[in-house]
Amino acid sequence: MIKVLLAEDQGMMRGALALLLDLEEDMQVVAQVAAGDRIVPAALEARPDIALLDIELPGRSGLDAAADLRDALPSCKVLIVTTFGRPGYLRRAMEAGASGFLVKDGPVEDLAAAIRRVLAGERVIDPGLAAAALSAGPNPLTQRERDVLTAAVDGATVSDIAGKLHLSQATVRNYLSAAIGKTGTRNRMEAVRAARQNGWL
Amino acid sequence: MIKVLLAEDQGMMRGALALLLDLEEDMQVVAQVAAGDRIVPAALEARPDIALLDIELPGRSGLDAAADLRDALPSCKVLIVTTFGRPGYLRRAMEAGASGFLVKDGPVEDLAAAIRRVLAGERVIDPGLAAAALSAGPNPLTQRERDVLTAAVDGATVSDIAGKLHLSQATVRNYLSAAIGKTGTRNRMEAVRAARQNGWL
DNA sequence: GATGCCCCCTGACAAATGTCATGGGTGCGG
DNA sequence: CCGCACCCATGACATTTGTCAGGGGGCATC
């Protein structure tokens, strides 16, 4: 019997997937969590064979949680299940030790199949996405550039960002300018979009 | 037997919900579509009793499709099922003649229950959301202000927007300024966020 | 120990953005 | 007919943003 942990913040999605997996003869959902920081505790409690993790979760990113889980419960495989097939996400997932990366676009049947393949020792990755991740190259942004961009996502002004990060305004503008340059965009807003698109934030 | 049409772009979600609803004794998913402009044709073909519509769909918004469906197949009830419980969405859904508005956050059990309540003639609406929709008031933005804001979402410059909408640059800036004023924000980016948050776009 | 990369800052300049006052044209309801 | 709201436009202004050319300090690597 395959014991599954399910981490997904959308209640309806979580419930539907749990129900669906429980229908499989050889699978059983032994834990369900809605927040990223509940993953490791729940896993230590329930000892699943595989963890299905969404990326964008409240509390802690599924990618960070995957790395935590790798340390806390190495026997547990990780399969990332996400809405967004962003190159940077895939890359980070692999670095965090995930065994598979599935986008929620595909048919549901893929899910159980992917679980079985992962448990059989395979790596499950969308081939098109893998190509995109390779062609996109690694994240070109430095830590500080990411900080500044993430602080700029919801329309904060330069002085807002400077205040939040305890930086000079001129410095903030320099980082923004660098990020704009590296993303090949024309302004802050496009840079934020491009960085998010690639999973660089 | 309740015949259900399911419109949802995310394959995994769509499949899982379909499977789940088919498990109900008295329900049957008679049509599944992934794009908004497929809703009416599929409904005319399959003659469902109720249509479950996501809002943010490729092709045509679920809200617009709800209005179309109202004309094309008045016997079919509409239940909006969406990720985003935005006040403006709820308001528009009601204006489009929807009988219910469900957010995907809640437990799956709510879904079948909501379907039955809608078919029994009830209106199904999250009470907290209804309150938010009322307190937020109606959309204060004019058509043109919406156009300009939507054209500005992904970082387009003033001249980009002016070109796309065939307007003078000064005019675009006036509309943007008006939108910023009405949303009580400080710049274009915040205005876009606020307008989206409220479902005004 | 030189090189390179990142961090943080300054100052100055050009361009884009946001605001305001002002105008004319349309269509709608009182 | 008048008021009102919306549409589109202009010009002028202050502010913000993006760019460029610097300089200093830390840390790792060759």
UniProtKB/TrEMBL annotation, chains A, B:
<dbReference type="InterPro" id="IPR039420">
    <property type="entry name" value="WalR-like"/>
</dbReference>
<feature type="modified residue" description="4-aspartylphosphate">
    <location>
        <position position="54"/>
    </location>
</feature>
<dbReference type="InterPro" id="IPR000792">
    <property type="entry name" value="Tscrpt_reg_LuxR_C"/>
</dbReference>
<feature type="domain" description="HTH luxR-type">
    <location>
        <begin position="134"/>
        <end position="199"/>
    </location>
</feature>
<dbReference type="Pfam" id="PF00196">
    <property type="entry name" value="GerE"/>
</dbReference>
<dbReference type="InterPro" id="IPR011006">
    <property type="entry name" value="CheY-like_superfamily"/>
</dbReference>
<dbReference type="Pfam" id="PF00072">
    <property type="entry name" value="Response_reg"/>
</dbReference>
<dbReference type="InterPro" id="IPR001789">
    <property type="entry name" value="Sig_transdc_resp-reg_receiver"/>
</dbReference>
<keyword id="KW-0238">DNA-binding</keyword>
<protein>
    <submittedName>
        <fullName>Response regulator transcription factor</fullName>
    </submittedName>
</protein>
<feature type="domain" description="Response regulatory">
    <location>
        <begin position="3"/>
        <end position="119"/>
    </location>
</feature>
<keyword id="KW-0597">Phosphoprotein</keyword>
<dbReference type="InterPro" id="IPR016032">
    <property type="entry name" value="Sig_transdc_resp-reg_C-effctor"/>
</dbReference>
